[in-house]
Amino acid sequence: MQDLAFKDHFSKVSEGYATYRPSYPLDLVDTLAGLCAAQNRVLDCGCGTGQLSVLLAERFNEVIATDASAAQIAKAQEKNGVIYKTALAEQSGLADESVDLITVAQAAHWLDLETFYKEASRIAKPHGVLALITYGVLHVEGAVDVLIQQFYYQTLAPYWPAERQHVENGYQSLPFPFAEIKVPTINMQEFWNLDQLIGYLNTWSAVKEAKNILSFNPVDPLRVLLIPEWGDPEHKKKVTWPLSIRAGKINSQ
User: Fold this and answer.
1) Tens of pLDDT along 161-187?
2) Residue 131 belongs to domain with CATH number
3) Is residue 123 part of a domain?
4) Is 151 a member of any domain?
5) Burial level of 162, CB count in 10 A (0-12/13-18/19+)?
């Protein structure tokens, strides 16, 4: 089998990723489970530290959660029914026609999609489902949102990898050679204090790249600007992300 490299933007921030990345809503898992003929086994590719994997275990008997980064797997959340493995999404190592659902959350834009789709077609049961999931740019309630949007679209613009555009357009620009299934709109939501927000911003790949080039963390001056707008730093504000899902039936002929 072809050896594939992967772009590792997250191993060095795996601890922050585990602590500060937002949680997916259980409504997402209910929706995905409802698309499947059975809820026996799901493969969660590019699982990171298991944010979605542990929720999938609430609705599926077995979750195989894989990530190419051993550092991410080492920080993954333990959960009964979840088996973590360090593996490329394109080389799952699973048997033919062995999974009911394949999920890729916030990671499809890093994959060799042609190779991955072949692998998905191999391991999916007849009428199995593939779901590519991504959440877009956050919005924070109140006046601080203007500063957040400026930081994302202006300050960090030179440092985002090219693949980020696929996240911004909800994966609509990615090829998807399967019979698509319409799914309801679902948003992600958290209530965070200032330090929780800052912790999340520090997990961004563009922040890591900017730190390497600028020799300082661009989040630090942003925090200074946010403090007077935020008020009490312990006060929690509503943070929302638009959630996009491209789902389709595999081997549906």
Assistant:
1) 998 999 999 999 999 999 999 998 899
2) 3.40.50.150
3) yes
4) no
5) exposed
Q: Characterize 46-80 residue by residue with b for buried, 16 or more Cβ atoms within 10 angstroms of its Cβ, and e for exposed.
A: bbbbbbbbbbbbebbebbbbbbbbebbbebbbebe
Question: Is 82 a domain residue?
Answer: yes
Cα(246)–Cα(108) distance, rounded to whole angstroms?
11
Find the DSSP H helices in the chain: 14-20, 26-35, 53-56, 70-74, 113-123, 144-150, 164-168, 194-201, 205-214, 219-230
In a domain, 90, yes or no: yes
Q: What is the maximum span of the chain, computed from C-alpha positions, in angstroms?
A: 59
Task: Give the residue numbers spanning the domain of 119.
Answer: 11-139+162-187+241-249
Per DSSP, the three-state class of 63 is strand
Q: Residue 97 is encoded by which pair of tokens?
A: 């026609």
SS3 208: helix
What's the pLDDT at 251? 78
pLDDT tens by residue, 34-75:
999 999 999 999 999 999 999 999 999 999 999 999 999 999
Torsion of CA 102, 75, 151, 143, to 10 degrees: 90
Q: What is the pLDDT of residue 7?
A: 47
Q: Which residue has the tokens 């609705």?
A: 59
Judge contact between 32 and 57, C-beta under 8 A: no
Instruction: Convert the pLDDT of each residue in 22-39 to its tens digit.
Output: 889 999 999 999 999 999
Quick one: which of 23, 191, 41 has its CA closest to 105? Answer: 23
Total domains in the fold of the chain: 1
229 close to 145: Cβ distance less than 8 angstroms: no
Query: Phi-psi region for residue 246, left (φ > 0), alpha (ψ -120 to 50) or beta?
Result: beta
Question: Phi/psi of residue 100, each to 5°?
Answer: -85, -30
